[in-house]
């Protein structure tokens, strides 16, 4: 597998610190064996998330210096509005400080207790915002999403039959809006096909259900559509993107992903009444509708980043870098979710550590060992993040997959860094039979993976 050459050159560097194994052991104990609680300076290769951790370009930094910090009506907002119209085409939008703020406002405006929100797979903050409003999130991804070895090109697709059945069972009046996540972060970063998006849109519209897209990685998803979907080869990416969002009534986005910024997001919609209600909620929670919790410099960086994130040379490199890491890991016997997605490689902790049951958090055990062995920080996407008690039966429902996500910050790490990750993962694999699980010692009711604490078994 050849490593793709970078379509950029490096103008600034940040030193990395090597931490001894003894210091890493101490850091793990102090963090309660939760890698979120580690100090960043104690991490050598930080693959915890691709959210806000990328490197901004010279054009973004230059634009940031021109930011208009006026409280209302800043020209930086109108620069962002122009980019939003060009890329997405929605009638209205409000900036937010990140994606979860957009989700919070959407749920506050549209969701009532006891109502349902279907999606292919809700990611952590989306699910938590629905639950926090006493709503019920429902995942309706296709069955192949649960098969890590399947090389189906669009494992993020919604199961259209299940969606129809679900709407018929709970009633369209009990669904204030429906969603889909592109790419499907909770299920291995797998893309959604244009054909499937058309089908989802048609079902929602036939039932009168507003359709919102979680657009965090829309550019990567569009790249996969052109690369993998019949009839889309050679089509301009911007045309694919405009068709995707023309199918929807609105979108939420953490711009910290495919808009290549360190902070920012938005909530977009076509409905005039919803827009007014959103503005009222935004003013209460985030700020005035032309800044939405962001500085003018952040609005300027986002306006440039939305367009840079669709650069075809950049996306070919981005997807190629992730593919390189995935194929190298497979070569040394590390099971992953296949095929490699766009923003991350998902290690199959359940397959690598079959002797550790769900209740003992095999993904978290693998996260801990990657840091212990090589100072690498990933994130568990399994029972720590997604296991939930059923209030009616008193049973614990575990996710089908126990994963560890290695998310690649955009324009940050080199081939040598990724080769180091592979060598550490191979060392962890060699000693996997000696690994043991963990026990929770503290967990909050929602989004527990951020602040919970463990002890080794």
User: Percent helix among the residues?
Assistant: 25-40%
Low-confidence stretches: none
What does the average pLDDT come to?
Answer: 95
Number of domains: 2
Biggest beta sheet summary: 5 strands, mixed
Taking all Cα atoms into account, the compactness measure Rg is 21 Å
Shape: globular
Spatial strand sequence of the major β-sheet: 2-8-7-6-5
The total of helices stands at 16
How far is the first residue's CA from the last residue's CA?
A: 39 Å
Helix-strand makeup class = alpha/beta
CATH architecture of the largest domain: 3-Layer(aba) Sandwich
Could you list some keywords that capture this structure?
single chain, five-stranded mixed beta sheet, 39% helix, Aspartate Aminotransferase, domain 1, globular, Aspartate Aminotransferase, domain 2, 457 residues
Q: Could you explain how this protein is built, in words?
A:
The chain is α/β, with parallel strands linked by helices. The protein folds into 2 domains: 21-50 and 311-456, Aspartate Aminotransferase, domain 1 (Alpha-Beta Complex), CATH 3.90.1150.10; 58-308, Aspartate Aminotransferase, domain 2 (3-Layer(aba) Sandwich). Helix content is 39%, strand content 13%. It has 16 helices and 16 strands. It has helices at residues 21-30, 58-64, 75-87, 99-110, 124-132, 160-170, 194-206, 218-228, 237-246, 272-285, 296-308, 312-331, 349-352, 362-374, 383-386, 415-430, and strands at 45-46, 92-96, 116-119, 136-139, 178-181, 211-214, 250-254, 265-269, 344-348, 376-377, 379-381, 388-389, 396-397, 403-407, 438-442, 453-456. The chain has a 5-stranded mixed sheet with strand order 2-8-7-6-5. Strands 9-14-11 form a 3-stranded antiparallel sheet. A two-stranded parallel sheet has the order 1-10. The longest helix has 20 residues, at 312-331. The mean pLDDT is 95.
């Amino acid at each position: 597998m050849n490593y793709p050459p970078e379509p950029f050159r490096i103008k600034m560097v940040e030193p990395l610190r090597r931490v001894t194994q003894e210091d890493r052991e101490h850091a793990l104990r102090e963090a309660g064996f939760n890698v979120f609680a580690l100090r960043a300076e104690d991490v050598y290769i930080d693959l915890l998330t691709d959210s806000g951790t990328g490197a901004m370009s010279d054009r973004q930094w230059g634009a940031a210096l021109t930011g208009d910090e006026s409280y209302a009506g800043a020209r930086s907002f109108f620069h962002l509005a122009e980019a939003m119209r060009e890329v997405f085409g929605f009638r209205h939008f409000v900036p937010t400080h990140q994606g979860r703020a957009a989700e919070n406002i959407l749920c506050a405006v549209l969701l009532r207790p006891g109502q349902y929100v279907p999606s292919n797979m809700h990611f952590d903050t989306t699910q938590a915002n629905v639950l926090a409003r006493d709503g019920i999130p429902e995942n309706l991804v296709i069955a192949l999403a649960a098969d890590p070895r399947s090389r189906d090109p669009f494992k993020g697709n919604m199961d259209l039959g299940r969606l129809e059945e679900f709407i018929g069972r709970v009633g369209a009046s009990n669904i204030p809006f429906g969603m889909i996540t592109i790419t499907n972060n909770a299920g291995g970063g797998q893309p959604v096909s244009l054909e499937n998006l058309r089908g989802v849109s048609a079902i929602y519209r036939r039932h009168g259900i507003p359709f919102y897209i979680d657009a965090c990685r829309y550019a990567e998803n569009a790249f996969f559509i052109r690369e993998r979907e019949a009839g889309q080869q050679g089509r301009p990416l911007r045309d694919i993107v405009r068709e995707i969002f023309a199918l929807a009534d609105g979108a939420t986005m953490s711009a910290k992903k495919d808009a290549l910024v360190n902070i920012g997001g938005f909530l977009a919609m076509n409905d005039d009444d919803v827009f007014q209600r959103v503005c009222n909620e935004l003013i209460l929670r985030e700020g005035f509708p032309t800044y939405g919790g962001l500085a003018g410099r952040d609005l300027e960086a986002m306006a440039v980043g939305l367009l840079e994130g669709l650069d075809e040379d950049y996306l070919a490199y981005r997807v190629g870098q992730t593919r390189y890491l995935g194929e190298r890991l497979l070569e040394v016997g590390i099971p992953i979710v296949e095929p490699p997605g766009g923003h991350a490689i998902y290690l199959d902790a359940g397959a690598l550590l079959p002797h550790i049951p769900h209740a003992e958090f095999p993904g978290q055990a693998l996260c801990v060992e990657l840091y212990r062995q090589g100072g690498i920080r990933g994130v568990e996407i399994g029972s720590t993040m997604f296991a939930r008690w059923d209030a009616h039966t008193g049973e614990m429902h575990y996710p089908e997959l126990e994963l560890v996500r290695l998310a690649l910050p955009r324009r940050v790490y080199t081939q040598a860094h990724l080769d180091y990750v592979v060598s550490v993962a191979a060392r962890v694999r060699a000693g996997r039979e000696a690994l043991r699980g963990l026990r929770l010692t503290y967990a909050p009711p929602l989004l527990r993976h951020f602040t919970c604490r463990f002890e080794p078994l």
